Amino acid sequence: MTAQAFWDRHASKYAKKPIADVTAYEEKLRCVMALLRPTDRVLEIGCGTGGTASKIAPVVAHVTATDFSAEMIRIARSRSGGDAAGTPEFLQAEAAQHIPGQPFEVICAFSLLHLVDDIPTVLDAVFHQMKRGGHFISKTVCLKDAPRWTRAMVRVLMAVRIAPNVIILSRAELTRHLSRAGFEIEQTRYFGKNRLSPFIVARKPA
User: What is the pLDDT of residues 121-145, one digit of tens each?
Assistant: First the structure.
């Protein structure tokens, strides 16, 4: 089963799944909002069913939100209220695909980079679609920093296709990927009790 087929198949279940830690999610959202300006054009890659993009859209000039799963995008559009003002534009696209409307002032990737096939290629696309001085905001699962038994369990779940394919990387490796792509790291933090998913704000040099 391809990654796209996996997420198409699981999109409805994903859409119904409650947020695991509402307090941590809201804190993350506040940090994102603090970086946004009313004139910003924002791109979110790997937007899933569009929950975060829909919260961001009313406070910026425009949000384009993409996902490679057609079913995720269908659900996101059905939830968004159509083409009304203050709603995102949802597009089916690969994470490394260049999107109309660039350069963007802000690009977001939440719970995505550990799921892509080639992190450097995705980060290169992000970098080249971003305005100088713009921000790349990400939150990424870094399973190499987890206990060995956790990594073993994830590998079993991947083998039986209960879990999607995941890149097993560490926070240090993720930071190196960002630096090699040309970004400057401005902040790294965690929300709630989860210490495996760093929230990183990186900046494209002006």
Answer: 999 999 999 999 999 999 999 999 9
pTM: 0.95
CA–CA distances in Å: residue 145 to residues 9, 19, 140, 200: 29, 23, 12, 16
Q: Taking Cα atoms as reference points, which of 114, 122, 136, 138 lies closest to residue 199? A: 138
Nearest Cα neighbor of 37 from 94, 92, 106, 87 is 106
Measured CA to CA, the distance from residue 131 to residue 105 in angstroms comes to 5
Cβ contact 53:75 at 8 Å: no
The closest of 40, 186, 181, 47 to 106, measured between CA atoms, is 40
